[in-house]
C-alpha cells in the first residue's frame, strides 16, 4: 500500500511539473506576442509587405500563449486538488494539442522553403526600395543598419543585394558604411569589396533568424 501511495504521489508531482512547463511555455509565447504587437515597430517596418503576416503571428502567439497558460493552471490545480474533472479536461486538451503539434510540424517541414523564400523576398524588397543609407533617420534604414552592425552582415546575402537599389543609385556606392568590418577603415569606401574590408555572406538560416530578433532599439553612434 505504501508503494502504491508513493507511486501516486510521484505521478501527482510529475503531473504538476509538466503542467508547470506548459504554463511557462504559454507565458513565453504570450510575452513574445505582446512584444511583436507593442515592441517591434522598426522590425515591422523593415520587412515591408510581410508586416501584416508578422503582426498576425503576434496575435497567434498571444492567443496560443493565453490558452497554454490556462491549460497549465488547469493541470496544476487538477493534480494538486486531485480533481478528476480537471484532470480529464487537462488530458483531453493536451491530447488535442499534441495532435495539432504533429500536424503543424509536418506542415512546417513541407513548407519551410516557401516560408524562407517569403522572408527573403519581402526583406530584400524593403532593402532595395526603401533603404536610404547609414545616416538616414527613417525606420526601415535604421532597422537595416542595426541588423548589419549587430550581426556583421552586408545586406541579406552579401553586398550584391545593393546592386540597383535606391541607396546605390543615389550614392553611386556598392554598399553602405555599415557593411564595413572596421567602420573607421579608410579602405572601406563603398567600392572596395575585399572580404577583409566588408562582411562576407551570412548563412541563410542565420539571417532568417536575425529577422526575428528585436531591432527596435536605437543604433549607437560610432
From TrEMBL:
<protein>
    <recommendedName>
        <fullName>Tetraspanin</fullName>
    </recommendedName>
</protein>
<keyword id="KW-0812">Transmembrane</keyword>
<feature type="transmembrane region" description="Helical">
    <location>
        <begin position="87"/>
        <end position="111"/>
    </location>
</feature>
<keyword id="KW-0472">Membrane</keyword>
<dbReference type="InterPro" id="IPR018499">
    <property type="entry name" value="Tetraspanin/Peripherin"/>
</dbReference>
<dbReference type="InterPro" id="IPR008952">
    <property type="entry name" value="Tetraspanin_EC2_sf"/>
</dbReference>
<comment type="similarity">
    <text>Belongs to the tetraspanin (TM4SF) family.</text>
</comment>
<keyword id="KW-0325">Glycoprotein</keyword>
<keyword id="KW-0458">Lysosome</keyword>
<dbReference type="InterPro" id="IPR000301">
    <property type="entry name" value="Tetraspanin_animals"/>
</dbReference>
<keyword id="KW-1133">Transmembrane helix</keyword>
<dbReference type="Pfam" id="PF00335">
    <property type="entry name" value="Tetraspanin"/>
</dbReference>
<comment type="function">
    <text>Structural component of specialized membrane microdomains known as tetraspanin-enriched microdomains (TERMs), which act as platforms for receptor clustering and signaling. Participates thereby in diverse biological functions such as cell signal transduction, adhesion, migration and protein trafficking. Regulates neuronal differentiation in response to NGF by facilitating NGF-mediated activation of NTRK1/TRKA receptor tyrosine kinase and subsequent downstream signaling pathways. Plays a role in the inhibition of TNFalpha-induced apoptosis.</text>
</comment>
<feature type="transmembrane region" description="Helical">
    <location>
        <begin position="13"/>
        <end position="36"/>
    </location>
</feature>
<feature type="transmembrane region" description="Helical">
    <location>
        <begin position="57"/>
        <end position="81"/>
    </location>
</feature>
<dbReference type="InterPro" id="IPR018503">
    <property type="entry name" value="Tetraspanin_CS"/>
</dbReference>
<comment type="subunit">
    <text>Interacts with SLC19A2. Interacts with NTRK1/TRKA.</text>
</comment>
Amino acid at each position: 500500500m505504501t508503494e502504491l501511495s508513493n507511486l501516486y504521489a510521484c505521478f501527482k508531482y510529475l503531473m504538476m511539473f509538466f503542467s508547470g512547463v506548459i504554463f511557462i511555455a504559454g507565458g513565453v509565447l504570450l510575452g513574445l506576442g505582446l512584444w511583436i504587437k507593442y515592441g517591434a515597430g522598426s522590425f515591422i517596418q523593415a520587412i515591408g509587405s510581410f508586416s501584416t503576416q508578422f503582426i498576425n503571428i503576434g496575435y497567434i502567439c498571444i492567443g496560443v500563449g493565453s490558452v497554454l497558460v490556462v491549460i497549465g493552471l488547469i493541470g496544476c490545480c487538477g493534480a494538486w486538488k486531485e480533481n478528476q474533472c480537471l484532470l480529464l479536461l487537462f488530458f483531453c486538451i493536451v491530447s488535442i494539442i499534441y495532435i495539432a503539434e504533429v500536424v503543424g510540424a509536418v506542415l512546417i517541414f513541407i513548407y519551410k522553403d516557401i516560408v524562407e523564400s517569403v522572408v527573403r523576398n519581402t526583406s530584400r524588397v524593403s532593402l532595395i526600395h526603401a533603404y536610404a543609407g547609414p545616416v538616414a533617420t527613417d525606420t526601415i534604414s535604421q532597422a537595416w543598419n542595426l541588423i548589419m552592425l549587430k550581426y556583421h552582415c552586408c545586406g541579406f546575402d552579401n553586398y550584391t543585394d545593393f546592386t540597383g537599389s535606391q541607396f546605390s543609385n543615389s550614392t553611386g556606392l556598392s554598399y553602405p558604411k555599415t557593411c564595413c568590418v572596421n567602420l573607421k577603415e579608410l579602405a572601406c569606401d563603398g567600392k572596395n569589396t575585399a572580404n577583409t574590408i566588408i562582411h562576407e555572406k551570412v548563412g541563410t538560416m542565420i539571417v532568417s533568424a536575425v529577422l526575428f530578433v528585436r531591432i527596435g532599439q536605437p543604433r549607437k553612434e560610432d
